[in-house]
Design brief:
The complex is a heterodimer of chains A (471) and B (592).
Chain A (H helix, E strand, L loop, with lengths): L2 E3 L3 E3 L2 E4 L9 E6 L5 E10 L2 E6 L12 E8 L1 E4 L7 E3 L15 E4 L16 E3 L3 H6 L2 E2 L6 E3 L5 H11 L1 E4 L4 E2 L5 E10 L1 H14 L5 E7 L10 H15 L3 E7 L1 H14 L13 H9 L11 E9 L8 H9 L2 E4 L2 H5 L12 E2 L2 H4 L9 H25 L6 H18 L9 H12 L12 H7 L5 H5 L2
Chain B lengths: L3 E7 L2 E6 L11 E5 L4 E8 L3 E6 L11 E8 L1 E4 L7 E2 L6 H8 L18 E5 L6 E2 L4 E6 L5 E5 L6 E6 L3 E3 L4 E6 L5 E5 L2 E4 L8 E3 L10 H6 L7 E5 L6 H11 L4 E7 L3 H13 L13 E6 L5 H20 L3 E7 L1 H14 L13 H9 L3 E4 L5 E10 L9 H9 L2 E2 L4 H5 L12 E2 L2 H12 L3 H25 L6 H18 L13 H23 L4 H5 L3 H6 L1 H4 L8 H19 L2
Parallel strand pairs in B: 8-21, 19-24, 19-25, 20-21, 20-22, 22-24
Antiparallel strand pairs in B: 1-2, 1-6, 2-5, 3-4, 3-6, 4-5, 7-17, 9-11, 9-14, 10-13, 11-12, 13-15, 15-16, 18-23, 23-24, 25-26
Helix pairs in contact in B: 5-6, 7-8, 11-12, 11-13, 12-13, 13-17
Classes of the chains: A alpha/beta (471), B alpha+beta (592).
Chain lengths: 471, 592
């Protein structure tokens, strides 16, 4: 293979190569250093016979004359085979579990291709996570992309682990649990601490899914530019498992914030004009190229459900990363530091959380007919609780009118009993809905303006004294 | 012509030079085919040595030295029967046909005719040999869907004498229907299909003042902030506030003849939902499936960014084509912010000097050019048609001071601000009544008083003033609580609650509430305002407000939107009667 000796320039993770022939855009290259070690890279800009190359492992140790470069003639690819299940890879898709190379059935460009919208199936199968706040208020649907917006120190990993353990497809309206189709997990760690990767590994082991899990680990001390490849490699594997082996795949990606920072670092070293907070102007398109790889395709039995996790810098939901994510994903689960500090797990910020696909996957024929109106009523009443709390903080709780006091009681009970649950507790959807009705019955009937009168008659509990006596 | 080849590649931006050195012969905005895959692109800059091209498809695998050829003209949309019920990408490639030939993923370098070249249409020619024709005249019709008659128009620039006309019958889009000879003795073949450059607006005879509303069935829009047919509106809102929901709602129920829905850099699943839902839903005005009048353009967020930039122009060109046939077209663009971001991305790759937040300095003029293509007009053929544009705006961080929202605000006359707090409380549509406005109120006053009722505007204004007064009072309430207010002020708050929950909030999934005709909207206002007037009177006579509130009457009024079906407005009379009886009795009881 043709090798080019030497480099023209090195700038951060980027190197320039001169007098290149037949290079193509986004082609993969390999650098061979003097001591025989190899690094990989990708062409990110071509101008005449000059190529700008991004080095995944970083350019440290490279010099202008000690390096030989060869073009590999194909874009960055991921080897695919059924034996991927149970394997662990680094951020660029090289095996790091000591089990040797993957014997590839096929190799696919990790950038994927945009899915034709006509080929999609609109997702509407309810996934029961066993967590009341998610099932009841921000329902997860198979084929959805539902991120967890968290902050440093909040318990997003625990929630993700609980979802992995408890998630199953149920349809109480049809009266039974549907037979479980083959199910698998693709886990992509981007810039997370070693402990976090460990935690997930142990969680997967404890749940017994480790044999059906593919892990990609780019830890916080791993090469940063490699991080740009990690989610793409993981999603390529997920697409293979879902659409060719017809499995239902849950993709957990953590932490998208580190990914975006890697992208920013790369962009600024390339000298691109920055958008907001120094992030590149194409951050939206770039994130979309990841998130939009969730879904269900016509004529295939598999599906990809995404559960990306991102930590909001300074808990700021308007920061570009959560902001742009929220514009692409189908809802978001937001965690709240105040609830967390009062010991409520999972500390779900109810009002900020949302599932866009919920409306078509719940109700009659899916969960229960009262699900949507009950959820709306809980949202509306809890929003009122927040308003009254704001007022109480000014005039004092004692000064509140009687009706407002009821809201305060409802708010406390709702947070403690509905939101709060144990890490091991798995509530089915009927339990969740009944609990919701018990709580909402703490408020007088005439306050419940989101529910039809006949539903009120059927589900409203006239006596809720027992509920208040609960610990 | 000298051979043009690719010189440099930077994402979707490709520079082209002549292989032997020399001047590139491309013109600005020419459509070109790039490389061996013949990727579609457009020339966006030319200088003496090179041309810059934005490529509408992924450039992965492209190499310097690959050939570039010109198509000989600008990017054009193909116009003809078969557009409706169809779904295209941003450069008008038919997504359904693409699946059968290229599989489930969007093809690179695939070339498709936007309209089927083999489909046969039942054509009725409307001209005969010897007739004089001018641009915009209808020379033939064919039923495009059960709902829309396709009127084939003499293209702009062609006029003369009809030489030959085909007999009525079934023809493809390329068969000649009419042959016209112009004054210079040049013969033109007119077929069902014609082309028009997407960045150029189609000519009209005259722009008309706007006089009728685009009826949406959403009370907060129709009553408080109406949009005129031919008008422009923006829906800004952070994520999760219901922009897309509102757009879908408008696409389903507004009384336009033709709907053009552009998914511009948005979610793939949303387009799938529109495709599925619209095939099942029945239009309340015509009792036909909604797909019969709908055309979709889907350039989802993960599809190439340059094609996203083009999708808005493709959409508006198709809208103009149906307007020229004499239809009222509503064009819904979700979201214009993604389009502006596509401009920014291309601009960044061109290393242009950025203005605000990295957006190019020409952002305002591009937005203005787009919205100015709306309007009600007399077409070249003499009929009346209109394009109303509703653009969703996705402000970064839900901050309305960012450049796209601010510049859009300058060029639209209707502003439906979505509010996070309302969305949190699941109050939909989450259109905030203090931040939103419509400049069409005055233009439409005549229509409302003639077509609905003389009192409509007055009722609307009283409703708006109660809401205004409430928001003023809430400043105090937030500090001291509602209990300390005197009864007359608390009444305002209570009535405002009835308006908010019983009138403004609307349940898109309730059969009686998803679309509400203007007559029912008026009746609902009358009930609320009667209650308000009599309750004020009672409070003035020192009857305690609590007596009125605990009567159950307010709850009854709030539920009337569900209880009274759209086709039985006479039942409102019992409500009015109940209210009168209650207050008469209340006054009598309170007499010493």
């Amino acid at each position: 293979m043709l090798q080019y000796v030497g480099l023209k320039a090195i700038n951060g993770p980027l190197v320039v190569l001169d007098r290149v022939q037949n290079a193509s855009y986004e082609e993969m290259v390999e650098f061979i250093l003097e001591d025989g070690t190899r690094r990989s890279g990708r062409i990110v800009l071509l101008e005449g016979d000059r190529a700008l190359i991004q080095v995944f492992e970083g350019a440290q140790g490279l010099s202008l004359d000690n390096t030989r470069t060869q073009l590999l003639g194909h874009p960055v690819e991921m080897p695919l085979a059924p034996e991927l299940l149970g394997r662990t890879f680094d951020g660029a898709g090289h095996p790091i579990d000591g089990l040797g190379e993957v014997y590839a059935v096929k190799r696919t460009d990790i950038n994927g291709k945009p899915l034709n919208p006509v080929a999609r199936v609109y997702p509407r199968n309810f996934i029961q996570t066993g967590i009341s706040s998610i099932d009841g208020l921000a329902t997860l649907i198979r084929g959805q992309k539902l991120p967890i917006f968290s902050g440093a120190g909040l318990q997003h990993n625990r929630i993700a682990a609980q979802i992995v353990r408890q998630a199953r497809l149920v349809n109480p309206s049809a009266g039974q649990e549907e037979p479980s189709a083959p199910f698998g997990i693709v886990f992509a760690a981007m810039g997370v601490k070693n402990d976090v990767a460990d935690y997930f590994q142990r969680a997967f082991e404890a749940t017994g899914v480790i044999q059906r899990t593919v892990m990609f680990l780019n830890l916080s001390n791993d090469p940063i530019i490699e991080r740009i490849l990690t989610p793409r490699a993981a999603l390529t594997v997920a697409e293979y498992l879902a659409y060719e082996l017809e499995m239902h795949i849950l993709v957990i990606m953590t932490d998208l914030t580190s990914y975006c920072e890697a992208l920013r670092e790369f962009s600024s070293s390339k000298g691109e004009i920055p958008g907001r907070k120094g992030f590149p102007g194409y951050l939206y398109s770039d994130l979309a190229s990841l998130y939009e790889r969730a879904g269900i395709i016509k004529g295939k039995n598999g599906s990809i459900t995404q559960l990306p996790i991102l930590t909001m810098p300074n808990d700021d939901i308007t920061h570009p990363i959560p902001d742009l994510t929220g514009y692409i994903t189908e809802g978001q689960i937001v965690l709240d530091r105040y609830l967390d500090s009062t010991g409520i797990y999972p500390p779900l910020a109810v009002l900020d959380s949302l599932s866009r696909l919920m409306k078509d996957g719940i109700g009659e024929g899916y969960t229960r007919i009262d699900h949507a109106p009950l959820a709306n009523q809980l949202f509306a009443s809890y929003a009122k609780v927040q308003e009254i709390r704001a007022l109480a903080s000014v005039i004092g709780e004692e000064e509140l009118a009687e009706r407002e006091q009821l809201y305060i009681t409802f708010g406390r009970a709702f947070e403690r009993l509905f939101l709060g649950q144990d890490f091991q507790e798995n509530r089915d959807i009927i339990q969740t809905l009944n609990l919701g009705w018990q709580l909402i019955s703490l408020l007088p009937k005439e306050e419940l303006d989101r529910v039809d009168s006949h539903l009120l008659e059927e589900y409203y509990l006239p006596d809720t004294t027992t509920l208040l006596k609960l610990p | 012509m000298a051979d043009m080849v690719v010189y440099s590649i930077n994402g979707p931006v490709v520079k082209v030079r002549v292989a032997q050195g020399g001047t590139v012969t491309l013109a600005l905005l020419d459509m070109v085919y790039v490389g061996s895959n013949r990727l579609i692109g457009e020339v966006i800059a030319v200088n003496d040595t090179e041309a810059t091209i934005q490529v509408y498809e992924a450039t992965t695998g492209l190499s310097p030295g690959e050939a570039v050829t010109s198509s000989g003209g600008p990017q054009k949309a193909m116009l003809g029967p078969g557009l409706l019920s169809n779904i295209f990408d941003g450069i008008q490639r038919p997504l359904r046909d693409m699946i059968s030939t290229h599989g489930l993923f969007v093809a690179v370098g695939g070339h498709f005719s936007p309209l089927s070249p083999t489909a046969l249409w039942q054509v009725t020619p409307l001209v005969s040999p010897g007739d004089q024709v001018t641009p915009g005249m209808v020379f033939a019709t064919c039923p495009e869907t059960a709902l829309i008659e396709h009127r084939s128009l003499v293209p702009p620039g062609i006029s003369g004498t009809v030489l030959q006309v085909a007999a009525a019958g079934r023809y493809t889009i390329n068969d000649p229907i009419v042959i016209v000879r112009d004054t210079r003795q040049v013969e033109h073949q007119l077929s069902l299909a014609q082309q028009w450059p997407i960045r150029q607006s189609r000519p009209v005879r005259k722009r008309l003042p706007l006089s009728r509303p685009l009826i949406t069935g959403l009370r907060v829009i129709d009553t408080l902030f109406p949009l005129a047919k031919g008008g422009t509106a923006a829906i800004p809102g952070g994520f999760g506030t219901g922009k897309t929901m509102t757009q879908h709602q408008l696409a389903k129920y507004c009384d336009a003849d033709v709907i053009i829905y552009i998914g511009c850099g948005e979610r793939g699943n949303e387009m799938t939902q529109v495709l599925q839902e619209f095939a099942e839903l029945i239009d309340p005005h015509t009792q036909r499936p909604l797909t019969d009048r709908t055309l979709l353009i889907a350039n989802t967020s993960n599809m190439p960014v340059a094609a996203r930039e083009a999708s808005i122009y493709t959409g508006i060109t198709l809208a103009e084509y149906y307007r020229d046939m004499g239809y009222h077209v509503a064009m819904l663009a979700d979201s214009t912010s993604r389009w502006a971001e596509a401009l920014r991305e291309i601009s960044g790759r061109l290393e242009e000097m950025p203005a605000e937040e990295g957006f190019p300095a020409y952002l305002p003029s591009r937005i203005a050019q787009f919205y100015e293509r709306a309007g009600e007009v007399t077409t070249l053929g003499g009929s009346t048609g209109s394009i109303s544009i509703v653009g969703a705006v996705s402000p970064q961080g839900a901050d309305f001071s960012e450049p796209v929202t601010q510049n859009t605000k300058r060029y639209v006359r209707c502003f439906w601000a979505l509010d996070k707090e309302l969305a949190y409380a699941r109050h939909y549509p989450a259109i905030n009544w203090t931040d939103s406005y419509s400049e069409y109120l005055e233009d439409l006053q005549r229509y409302y008083s003639r077509q609905v009722d003389r009192s409509f505007t007055e009722c609307r204004n009283r409703l708006a003033s109660i809401l205004q007064e409430e928001s003023r009072l809430m400043e105090t309430v937030k500090l001291v609580g509602a209990d300390v207010l005197p009864d007359d002020q608390r009444l305002v708050i209570e009535v405002a609650r009835i308006i908010r929950v019983g009138f403004l909030q609307q349940n898109a999934f309730h059969p009686q509430d998803s679309f509400v005709p203007l007559t029912k909207q008026l009746k609902m206002m009358e009930v609320i305002l009667l209650f308000d007037a009599l309750a004020r009177n009672a409070v003035r006579q020192r009857i305690p407000l609590s007596q009125i509130m605990k009567s159950g009457l307010p709850e009854q009024i709030i539920r009337m939107k569900y209880e009274i079906a759209n086709d039985e407005p006479e039942r409102f009379d019992t409500y009015l009667e109940d209210i009168r009886t209650f207050f008469t009795k209340l006054t009598l009881d309170s007499l010493p």
